[in-house]
Amino acid sequence: MRKRLIPPVVLTAALLLGTTACSDGGGDGANGAAARATPSDTVSKVQESPAGSPSAPAPAAADADAVDPAAQAYVDAVAAEDLDALVAAFHPDAELTDVGRQFSGHDEIRRWADNEVIGGRLTVLKNTPKSNGTTLLVRFAPGGSGGFEANYEFDVRDGRIAKLNLQYA
């Protein structure tokens, strides 16, 4: 008697369907319900902006948790390794304090960002909106790995960053 082989395409489809049914909680086992997370299970939004990959905010409607557009422009520029976009996110007379070191205006901010920010990985851990901007708790890895946590306090004026204060968390 000749054995029948299942074509690889059919076998792959069957395996995928079986895996999907299990992961959707299709069974009545206790793990089905426990494995599924709901939006209310999310403690805070986490946005990663590693060099070379896009920001990945948690799905949400425009709400109080949305990152201020000027701060988001900064996060996006770090992710894209776009020095010009990062500088453009700042008001021309902006002031930046990086753990006590002061930088003023586009030229100084450009030099600082080129030496210390571009090429790093920035992950937003928490967003705390305020009336004139936001404070982000972030993990910043200057070389793309490792890193440290810091509070980035953004003051926004005319849709651009007027002041940015960076302090270790």
Q: Can you walk me through this structure?
A:
The chain is of the alpha+beta class and 169 residues long. The protein has two domains: 8-36; 47-168, Nuclear Transport Factor 2, Chain: A (Roll), CATH 3.10.450. It has five helices and seven strands; from the N terminus they run ααβααββαββββ. The protein has a seven-stranded mixed β-sheet with strand order 1-4-5-6-7-2-3. The chain starts with 7 loop residues before the first helix and ends with a strand.
Structural class based on helices, strands and sheet pairing: alpha+beta
Summed over residues and divided by their number, the pLDDT gives a mean of: 75
Radius of gyration: 22 Å
Uncertain stretches of 5 or more adjacent residues: 1-62
Strand-residue proportion:
25-35%
Domains, number: 2
Q: Roughly what percent helix?
A: 25-40%
Q: How would the global form be characterised?
A: globular
Features:
alpha+beta, 2 domains, Nuclear transport factor 2 family protein, Nuclear Transport Factor 2, Chain: A, NTF2-like_dom_sf, single chain, signal, seven-stranded mixed β-sheet, SnoaL-like
Produce the secondary structure layout.
Elements: H1 8-23, H2 30-35, E1 47-49, H3 69-80, H4 83-88, E2 90-98, E3 101-104, H5 105-116, E4 121-130, E5 133-141, E6 148-157, E7 160-168
Parallel strand pairs: 2-7
Antiparallel strand pairs: 1-4, 2-3, 4-5, 5-6, 6-7
InterPro entries: NTF2-like_dom_sf, SnoaL-like
Domain SnoaL-like: 72-163
Keywords: Signal
